[in-house]
Amino acid sequence: DEVFRICGLPMAPLGPPAEVTIGIFYPEDRDALFSAFERCCADGTPYEVESRLVRSGEIRRVISRGAPERD
Length: 71
Fold this sequence. Notes:
Layout: H1 2-7, H2 18-23, H3 27-43, E1 47-55, E2 58-66
Antiparallel strand pairs: 1-2
């Protein structure tokens, strides 16, 4: 719920689509965020990346954190 609120996206049961989510981030910040996410999925490395997102024409700074959960 918090991701939707911060990003200004409508609620969806499966989360926002990746292409929509990555598209709201500032272009210069996308590569670092995407690389950290891919590394997390590939080898389990948790990440914390500070980036900017654009919402309603306003630039906001956010910290994205992630860690894998596996069965």
